TrEMBL record:
Listed InterPro entries: Gal_Oxase/kelch_b-propeller, Kelch-typ_b-propeller, Ppm1/Ppm2/Tcmp, SAM-dependent_MTases_sf
UniProt keywords, alphabetically: Methyltransferase, S-adenosyl-L-methionine, Transferase, tRNA processing
Catalysed reactions, as listed in the record: 7-[(3S)-(3-amino-3-methoxycarbonyl)propyl]wyosine(37) in tRNA(Phe) + S-adenosyl-L-methionine + CO2 = wybutosine(37) in tRNA(Phe) + S-adenosyl-L-homocysteine + 2 H(+); 7-[(3S)-3-amino-3-carboxypropyl]wyosine(37) in tRNA(Phe) + S-adenosyl-L-methionine = 7-[(3S)-(3-amino-3-methoxycarbonyl)propyl]wyosine(37) in tRNA(Phe) + S-adenosyl-L-homocysteine
Organism placement in taxonomy: Eukaryota, Metazoa, Chordata, Craniata, Vertebrata
Protein name according to UniProt: tRNA wybutosine-synthesizing protein 4
Record organism: Rynchops niger (Black skimmer)
Length: 670
């Protein structure tokens, strides 16, 4: 548990060094330096914002009181006191920090030998007496095990804590490491003993969904299990917990809500521009698995930093489910290697042959951008997996992610866009040529030749997380290239019609309401046009709109497809059209109470039905974002390939094998 404090201090320090948080004291308190990934920086940024927002609100609201106090539980090497003192917010506030005795002693020694820190505190020399390892006029550092409540109470009393003045308790990912009966007792003690008290809690939730399972496993392996999750799995349970333990006001929100509602727009944009970033799914999942809670009692006016001065969009109730669809592991002839990947693309070459290219995943036992092309062939009711031989392996495939592949015939496919790293320019276009063979039963039967386009034809192709969809205009086939993002533009809303022969952009007039810019949306061919659904919009907010680009006499026209109930905003899903129904599969949304399953939109009536995916037959968490899916019309089955991602600092999860969803029931019932 102490190790988690050390590693989080290193992460905060790295985030401060990159400008995510303004904190010049962290580097003095943290010994080792490591540069963390942008995703981790964002995670610690939102944590610091939430805690800072609530602490400053407490100090502001209690300004008129002659004395107030802050008790930071499990403070570790946090710099809160030094930051508040430095900006002059502690005129009449004493800060008490509590942590394990050895942590408190280390921190005390560090403060004493660091001029910048000791000068701010002003040592009064009352330390070294029992549990008080450091004592300044407005700063007391105590070495006590929080789970021993009577010792904690004695130590705080000895250090001068006053039960009658406004007191803020802070527990930033601390209580969850304690046994529930002990953390509950602490929450109740704070409410009972202090006449004017506030509590600020920041920790994890939602242990049972795929991301939650990976998160729990990580902490268990670190020997620091998250104990509160089973009993208090969500915001509602935590709120009830505080009410039952004697608190009169309590509000709580997950970190997606906090970022959207409590972070000013210009600050959101500043943070989003700090580093090249392309892990939106994991950022939003991380945020939906952490909450900030504030509770108070005896405070006049009552302390509600999560509700004051801001409008929380109505928190939608849980998504109503029309039923469930069972996921089963796909019957395979052989061990499936090479399909543990995400950000790849899969395409049906022939009714029984699926080609998967690109993405990031596992190859030869280590994680990397994928070089190998992979094929699945259905033969006698079972799938065989294998690698595709490249005729010219030295040709640049560029190991791309987030590209598209469009089959123009059974022997020709076009790769458009994609990226290597998010800071590099998008990649252009590439032909994939396959031999004309009628019956293919073994992966070895398939070879592919890569043909670069010199130059990579259209500059419009230099993008990723876009869509490329076949449309028909005046009897001719075109590829409609839409949306996505590039190294310069975080979100694109433009499009072009690629003529499939010349691969040049043709101007075709388009009228009607233009969809807002988006990436990571879905696009399907339908009635000669395209259906665009969902995606991530300009402010990194998921979209719930559905548009149909419809062929007219003189060009195309955008039409809004009204859905009811309105489609829950989502992105990073896949989509298929069958028999007048749009099927949306997986993705990421902001309802932290559930993960997206399969949504069926009736394109005639607009009726929108959500189905959960029943995963009881799978032995591993099924993460359905950055996956690919192929609809097999004869079997009315969906084959889901790959998916997953880098789960914050909890490790990378890759779905280990392809999964089948049988849709015959839900497609028949409509």
């Amino acid at each position: 548990v102490q190790g988690t404090g050390g590693s989080s201090a290193v992460s905060k320090c790295s985030a401060a060094a990159r400008g995510y948080i303004q904190d010049r004291f962290l580097r003095l308190l943290v010994g080792r330096r490591r540069r963390r990934a942008p995703l981790v920086h964002r995670g610690y940024y939102i944590r610091a914002r939430a805690v800072g927002h609530c602490v400053q609100d407490f100090l502001l609201k209690t300004q008129s009181h002659p004395k107030t106090q802050i008790v930071s539980l499990g403070a570790g090497f946090d710099s809160l006191y030094f930051r508040l003192k430095d900006i002059g917010l502690l005129h009449h506030t004493v800060v008490y920090e509590v942590d394990f005795p050895n942590v408190a002693c280390q921190k005390a020694a560090l403060i004493k030998r660091t001029k910048e820190l000791s000068a701010l505190v002003g040592d009064t020399g009352g330390e070294g007496l029992g549990v008080i390892t450091f004592s300044g006029e407005d700063y007391k550092l105590l070495g006590v095990d929080l789970s021993e409540l009577s010792e904690l109470e004695r130590a705080l009393e000895e250090a001068g804590l006053d039960n009658e003045i406004p007191t803020l308790f802070i527990a930033e990912v601390v209580l969850t490491y304690m046994e529930n009966r002990r953390s509950d007792a602490l929450i109740q003690w704070a409410a009972e003993r202090f006449s004017q008290a506030c509590f600020l809690l920041y920790e994890q939730m939602h242990p049972e969904d795929p991301f939650g399972r990976v998160m729990q496993q990580h902490f268990s392996q670190m020997n620091s299990a998250l104990n509160s999750l089973a009993q208090y799995p969500d915001c509602e349970a935590q709120q009830t917990r505080f009410f039952e333990k004697g608190w009169t006001n309590c509000s709580v929100m997950d970190m997606n809500e906090f970022f959207t509602c409590c972070t000013p727009e210009d600050e959101q944009q500043r943070m989003q521009a700090l580093e090249p970033f392309d892990e939106y799914e994991e950022w939003h999942l991380k945020c939906s698995h952490y909450f900030v809670l504030t509770a108070s009692k005896g405070m006049e006016p009552s302390w509600t930093p999560l509700l004051s001065n801001m409008t929380v969009p109505h928190r939608d109730g849980p998504v109503r489910m029309a039923g469930s669809i069972t996921a089963t592991a796909c019957p395979m002839h052989s061990e499936v290697s090479g399909l543990r990947r995400y950000g790849h693309h899969s395409v049906l070459l022939k009714p029984n042959v699926i080609l998967t290219t690109g993405g990031f995943g596992e190859e030869d036992g280590h994680h990397c951008r994928m070089r190998n092309f992979h094929v699945l062939i259905k033969h006698a009711g079972c799938w065989k997996a294998g690698c595709v031989k490249k005729e010219n392996p030295d040709k640049r495939w560029d190991e791309r992610l987030y590209h598209t592949v469009s089959c123009l015939s059974s022997s020709l496919a076009l790769v458009v866009g994609g990226r290597t790293s998010p800071s590099s320019a998008g990649l252009g276009m590439l032909w994939l040529k396959f031999p004309e063979t009628c019956n293919v039963s073994e992966p070895d039967d398939i070879t592919v030749e890569l043909v670069s386009l010199q130059p990579a034809a259209e500059p419009a192709a230099l993008r990723w997380r876009h869509s490329t969809t076949e449309v028909i205009f005046k009897g001719e086939k075109y590829l409609f290239l839409y949306g996505g993002r590039s190294a310069i533009e975080p979100v694109l809303g433009d499009w072009c019609f690629l003529h499939t022969q010349e691969l040049s952009c043709i101007v075709i007039p388009v009228e009607g309401p233009v969809p807002e810019s988006r990436h990571s949306h879905s696009a399907c061919s339908w009635k000669g046009g395209v259906l665009i659904a969902g995606g991530l919009g300009a402010a990194e907010q998921p979209l719930g709109s559905v548009f149909f680009l419809r062929e007219l006499e003189r060009g195309f026209q955008w039409q809004i497809v009204e859905t009811h109930p309105p489609l829950s905003p989502r992105y990073s899903h896949t989509a298929h059209v069958h028999d007048g129904k749009l099927l949306l599969v997986g993705g990421v949304w902001f309802h932290s109470s559930s993960v997206p399953g399969v949504t069926v939109v009736d394109l005639t009536t607009g009726l929108c039905l959500d189905y959960t995916i029943n995963v009881e037959h799978l032995e591993w968490p099924l993460m359905l974002h950055n996956h690919s899916s192929v609809f097999l019309p004869n079997e009315k089955e969906l084959l889901l390939i790959g998916g997953g991602g880098n789960c914050f600092s909890f490790g990378t999860h890759l779905n280990p094998e392809p999964v089948l969803l049988s849709l015959s029931n839900i497609l028949a019932s409509h």
